[in-house]
Amino acid sequence: MTLLDQEQVRSRLREISIIIPVRDDREKLSKLMQELREYPEFEVVVVDYQSTDDPGSLDFEFVFCKSPVVGRGNQIYYGIERATRDRLWILHADTTLNPAAIAGLARAFDIYQWGSFNVQIRHSHWMYRVVETMMNLRSRLTGISTGDQGVFVERELLDAIEGFPQIPLMEDIALCIRLKKICWPYRIKAKIGISARRWERDGIWKTIVQMWRYRYRYFRGHSTTKLYREYYHD
User: Fold this and answer.
1) Of the candidates 181, 113, 170, the residue with the CA atom closest to the CA atom of residue 147
2) Distances in Å between the alpha carbon of 146 and those of 9, 41, 161?
3) 27-80: pLDDT as tens digits
4) What is the pTM (predicted TM-score) of this model?
5) SS3 193
6) Rounded-to-integer distance, Cα 90 and Cα 221, Å
7) What is the DSSP letter of 123?
8) Number of other CB atoms surrounding residue 221 within 10 Å
């Protein structure tokens, strides 16, 4: 990338707010903030819910607020309310970034109203290559992305669907279903990194089955509050 290209990318970043929901994620958030320090043009909004650690002590300038309501969807909603820019990028605290992904986002916003990224799971075992390939393929075919795929959206389009879904779980699915009724998402080819933690802890196949079971129950109309409590063992 030439110096001119870099300057053009950075000028576009000044139009973007990053929303990061957290709950006891200080260590992961610290690593993400270290990466974002290379891009001070972003506005970063961190939204906490009942954390016992202190993300406010990080050596990085960002907006910090607390959601009064349980659940990631509610946190993101409140973060968007605090954000001052009209291009929104939703990231999980355990995401890892790279220059190609940042440049891809900046360029995508010039043409597309919303979309997400391909992902790479941070684990060397070959099975994770299979899992991430299936995740990326599923999103490309269905137009539905999970929250860890770095969904980005124009505020104007979000307003057209009456705002971000205020539900504690499955907010990513609900968002994509509503948005794709207006226009199909763009897939940024550059990959962002996501954690293998849940797959490592619960096992690959068990985790896959659990995720599809939650989606099935959501589509069947089960309470997202109940699903949240089961998912997070609250």
Assistant:
1) 170
2) 26, 26, 18
3) 899 999 999 999 999 999 999 987 776 655 566 678 999 988 889 999 999 999
4) 0.93
5) strand
6) 25
7) -
8) 7
8 Å CB contact between 79 and 65:
yes
Tokens linked to 45: 């909004």
List, for residues 132-191, the tens digit of each pLDDT value.
999 999 999 999 999 999 999 999 999 999 999 999 999 999 999 999 999 999 999 999
CATH class of the 3-195 domain in this structure: alpha beta
Tokens 């200080």 correspond to 26
- What is the C-alpha separation between 37 and 48, in angstroms, rounded? 20
Domain boundaries in the chain? 3-195
Q: Which residues contact 17 (CB under 8 A, 6 or more apart)?
A: 42, 43, 44, 45, 80, 83, 84, 85, 87, 88, 89
